[in-house]
Amino acid sequence: MLVAFSVAPTTAESDDGSVSKAVAEAVRIVRDSGLPYELNAMFTLVEGEWDEVFGVIKRATDAVVAVSPRVSLVVKADIRPGFTNQLSEKVQRVDALLGD
Asked: Is the full-model pTM beyond 0.85?
């Protein structure tokens, strides 16, 4: 399964509206999980089995809750049993159709 998620405090940590410190702690948990992942400006994508992926999302969310009285969590999942390595293979299939 592939899961895209975004977790962030609803209050900024600095005058410029940044929430990067809290987000970095969440990403550290994803990185340390050992699951395949990708980070972009809006979401973190994680690949693995249901329980392990959602366990990581819970721990990442708990890390943000620890520094903020209110937290936003957005989750989108692509559940496709029997498929692995989809972080790269889905992109490769589209790139092949585009001729890249």
From this structure: yes
